[in-house]
Amino acid sequence: IPAPAVQLRPPASHARQARRAGGRPLPALPLPGGRAYNPLPEPSARFRERPHLEANFSLSAHLFAYETLDFAHLREAAEAGFRRVELWAMTPHFDAGDAAALSNLKSWLKELSLAPATFHAPFYAGLAEARAGRWLSLAHPGEAARADALARTEASMRAMREAGAGVAVLHPCAPGQAGAGDTWEALQASLERLLALAERLDLTLAVENIPAPLGRPAGLAAFLGRMNHPRLRACLDAGHARLTEGEDAPAAFARLAPLCAATHIHDNDGRRDEHLIPGEGGVDWSAFRGALEAAHYGGALTFEIKRREEPRRATLARLAQAASRLLSPPGGRGPVSAPSPAGWRCPPPPKRPAAWDGPAAAGAELALARLRRMAGERFGAPAAQAVLLAGDASERRYARLHHPGAGPGSSIGMILSAPFDPGELPFLEARAHLAALGQPVPAIYALEPEAGLILLEDGGPRSLEDLWNGSGWEACRPYYETAVDLLIALQEGRRAPSGPALRRAFDPAFFARELHHTRRWAFEALLGMEAPEDRFAPHFDALAEACCRQPFRLTHRDYHSRNLMAGPGGRLMVLDFQDARQGPAAYDLASLVFDSYAGLPGEARELLTGRFREGASAAREMGGPDAFRAALAATALQRNLKAIGTFAFQRAERGKTFYLPSIPPTVRSVRGHLARLPGQAALGKLLGPFLDALERVEARPS
Questions:
Q1: Other Cβ atoms closer than 10 A to 331
Q2: Best CA proximity match to 342, nearest among 86, 612, 54
Q3: Residue 97 backbone phi and psi in degrees, to 5
């Protein structure tokens, strides 16, 4: 996924390295979202004259996995020409809970001028357990079994981030048939917990394709597309793709490469997971390299080789030659006498939305051509025009297709970030359920799951926000009243959700994570102010608990003026419902009447709030009007604070500055909620300096 130009500040330790190197710029491998916090240290004197491989070549400590890590292992990697390593956070090799071992590791890396590109999170507790086939699994259906895997993974994340690694490689499940009982639902639950920690540590998680039921490339790509989290990516393992896909491995390379934050490079005969040196088996390395280049991958190329009978130095010498021969860039010379200033980088991707380069199709033009063909097959005449629409906060893209005289005259093409399984895509599950409840959601005209494309009914070019900006409250009033009535109907509908997506539910931990997301991205990253987690945690936890004391109903989750299309005669079409889940009954109303994009007047909010309370049974269950207003204010406070974090994140991670003007009006809403909630006075006092700064953010340069 292309990275925007905006980059976060690297940790202070890396700034100190740059100063020691005389102020020269030090290269850094790009990570998803533009982060680049893993610069290559200046070679120490003892290694400055030695040959160096390409700067993004990395050696996995898998080569030493059965031995306790020591200085000699890392020295062998450095002497072979590697300047990056993948650390192996598993005992007996490395104990993440051993403070002395971590201190030694940091010292050795510094002395040898090695940068930890990635680390492998544990998938076994020890060698005895691994040999007995007792694996750790993040996808185990049993909570107790998952808890051990999660605890060990979290410990490794903390230790390895302190050592300087920026990407955690995870197995999705237990290997082989040991993972037959593992589930996607359990894996998603584990990853949601780990992603909260990854946010705090500034880590990216890369899920590896492995020979196991949940480890096949197609299923993994679809799963990552469904989760659609900016810190969740893939680790493309070339050898494993060869084992599971056989001659179709090049297609697997092309499928996973656009989602990559890490790679594992090794070879095999197609039958056994041998972890051979590239070129000693049957992997198509030309196809592998081509897939990475086409995806503009610029991260580490990590060689994950097994120990052989020969001396390790001989293995490393053969590996260096094979790596340079098979995977160096065009025109590369193999090992060179001095490190390249910046290492090999694929050409930078074009900036979106001018030319989208997502993995759902080979570029925007191919996606649009397929959508035109889909429209032609559906309506009997090809679309005369297909135009990409402006992007939003997601990785999805949309296009409007014009086909006058054929069918409805226009349609919308949805371009997803990965192929999908129609039976597992939350958007389709939610759409079917909402349609059965009588909600005005777009019809599905055609699907091409393997290309990540959906052809939808067009709700028209005018959103409720557009109508508000152009005509004001009186023109919008019928639409807002309809929106409240639809919300009541959604909550009062008695049709039970049929799939797992709609059975998901908000909980206090989820709401607290969203608030900490704002603390990190708005208070710290955008404003540059200190906002220690421990100062905010008690107040955020209390607000999250307050939100969840309401009755729960099915919520849209993003019910506001940009997702409601205003048609003629007061007709609405509801969009962007794929994240629907069970939540506080006041949540969608809070999103609608305290919208960051359409600042309704106070009397309009009162009218709509009263209309909802009269029609929604959950609102009446909360008690009298004052009790309901307090619940609404608490929910709106969490929702608006969360929105500020989203706007700041889009600026920092994706370079999207057009959300910044929405921050000051949202801050004003936050102040209003705090004034109505005397129980949140301490939180209001804590937030005060940050809100003052955020109200001025619109004038900050972009």
A1: 5
A2: 54
A3: -90, 0
Angle at 288 between CA 284 and CA 291, to 5 degrees: 140
- Whether pTM exceeds 0.90: no
Rounded to the nearest 5 percent, the helix, strand and coil shares of the chain are 50, 10, 40
What are the structure tokens assigned to 553, written together? 């109903």
- Strands 453-457 and 410-415 come out as antiparallel
Q: Which two tokens stand for residue 636?
A: 């709106």
Among left, alpha and beta (phi > 0; psi -120 to 50; other), residue 405 is: left
Using an 8 Å Cβ cutoff, are 268 and 276 in contact? Answer: yes
Q: Which of 245, 212, 195 is nearest to 33 (CA)?
A: 195
Structure tokens at 607: 């009218």
Lowest mean pLDDT among 378-392, 500-514, 641-655: 378-392
Q: How far is CA 442 from CA 435, 458, 575, in A?
A: 9, 7, 8
Closest-CA residue to 63 (of 244, 276, 236, 289): 276
For position 467, what pLDDT does the model report?
A: 92
Cβ partners under 8 Å of residue 676, min gap 6: 629, 630, 633
**What does the DSSP 8-state code read for residue 220?**
H
**Are the CB atoms for 394 and 428 separated by under 8 Å?**
no
Task: Note every long-range contact of 46-51, with CB atoms under 8 Å and residues 24 or more positions apart, other chains counting.
Answer: 47/78, 47/79, 47/112, 47/113, 48/338, 49/337, 50/78, 50/79, 50/81, 51/81, 51/335, 51/336, 51/337
The amino acid that residue 184 corresponds to is W
Lowest mean pLDDT among 229-233, 340-344, 463-467, 632-636: 340-344
**pLDDT one-digit tens code per residue, 109-162:** 998 989 998 999 999 998 888 888 899 999 999 998 999 999 999 999 999 999
Contact of 327 with 266, CB cutoff 8 Å: no
What distance in Å separates the CA atoms of residue 274 and residue 323, rounded to the nearest whole number? 17
Beta bridge partners of 554: 582
Query: What pLDDT, on a 0 to 100 scale, did the predictor assign at position 395?
Result: 64
Give the pLDDT confidence score for residue 15 in this predicted structure: 35
Q: Find the mean pLDDT for residues 386-415.
A: 82
